[in-house]
Design a protein that fits this description.
- Helix 1 runs parallel beside helix 3 and helix 4 packs antiparallel against helix 5.
- The chain folds into two domains: 81 residues, Glutaredoxin (3-Layer(aba) Sandwich), CATH 3.40.30.10; 112 residues, Glutathione S-transferase Yfyf (Class Pi), Chain A, domain 2, CATH 1.20.1050.10.
- A hairpin with a 2-residue loop joins strand 3 and strand 4.
- It has ten helices and four strands, in the order βαβαββαααααααα.
- Strands 2-1-3-4 form a four-stranded mixed sheet, covered by helices on one side.
- With 213 residues, the protein is an alpha+beta fold.
- The protein is 58% helix and 8% strand.
- It comes from Actinidia rufa.
Amino acid sequence: MATMKVHGSVISTATQRVVACLNEKDLDYEFVPVDMGSGEHKKDHFLCLNPFGQVPAFEDGDLKLFESRAITQFVAHVYTGKGTQLIFENPKKMATMAVWMEVEAHQFDPLASKLGWELVYKPMFGMTTDAAVVEENEAKLTKVLDIYEARLAQSKYMGGDAFTLADLHHLPTVQLLMGTQCKKLFDARPCVSAWCADILARPSWAKVLAMKS
């Protein structure tokens, strides 16, 4: 029986990030669905795992974690002998990778998440997309992707010469935006477009998408 448990929702990008990491590491885990529609994530039994009432929550034996990027870093550092090496041993390479992990979290994800909310989730929930918010965040994302294009012209992956957490952390939101009008922003930049095609084709990610179907 798997000692690791992921409590989450298959449509949650943060949950998908953790599951993709576990798949890359070829680790056994139990997926525990959280019924967000009924507000299960705000009930006491879940708040014991994540006091902020957000998915995912993670258990490995007696260790309990929340925040998807903290979970992926724990998994990558503790289970180095399994699956894909998602981090670097070299301190300088690791520091560069850490920079681009921060870029994803603070520069890319806030914009991608706002656009995903407006263009994917609002229509799903029968709400009206705010065109002004979309326009504003597309303009900001364009500037970020220009920086990504320059980075990926010099480096095959965001964090360096190998696929790492710096790339993996992008997967859920890149996938989300590829199904929207924002796809054109990625397609217009050859290095970004090639990088997206590369990371989205990983078997670990195909397994995540299969959970949603």
